[in-house]
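QA checklist item 7 of 12: single-chain prediction sanity check.
[x] sequence parsed
[x] length recorded as 241
[x] structure emitted
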Amino acid sequence: MGTITGHYQRRIAGSSASSKYESHEALIYINKRLDAKGLTGFDPDNPLERTAAVASTLDASIERLPKTDLERFYQLGIFPEDEAIPVSNLCSLWDLDELDTEDLCERLARASLLQDYDGLAIRLHDVVRAHLLPKLEEPARLHTRLIDGWGDLFALPNDYAWRNLAYHLIQARQPEMLRSLLLNFQWLQTKLDATNIHALVGDGIWVPEDDAIRLLMSALRNAAHILVLNKTQLWTQVYAR
């Protein structure tokens, strides 16, 4: 496997028609390799190989995308690693209706630019996401657009939004909004009901320097064994600790 990069760089060079076909074929191969063996599927003695192979193949493949599709594909870089991204979230980000969003997901899936698409959500390989990140223009604006699309932060639309709102608020440069939510008991209880105590405690990592949040998270961690079994005990446990 030590020649993957050079092999595919040679394959994606050549005539225009051949280049488009073989870059698509190469991306399918790399996706399968990543699915089967993850990052270890590439030469361990050449740590830059996987990055170069994916970058070369992606750059050749995405040349076939219309400009608007390409811009929206790059925008997928705002999502965190290892997450299934609901189509409804993409509607907000891309400012498309559900049918147009599904059509774009289908086109990206056919081009082997997605790790998975099941009609409800998409997944990206982490190395593909890493390739997209430098392409983003004004990422904070994109995070803000996604959050605004969710509407009421006390009534988020899906599990992804509840689990990842804190991440997107920080990336949108809105730490004070996150802080105000974490210090609001109604929001804490609503998030706990929608997810679990571990997801709630995990939000604290995004505001590590705040004494009030640190104290709250310490109380939640100490009460975790109780709140796993009985979420209605949140107020009693936080007040007591």
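[x] summary fact logged: The chain has three domains: 4-62, 67-132, 139-240.
[ ] second reviewer sign-off
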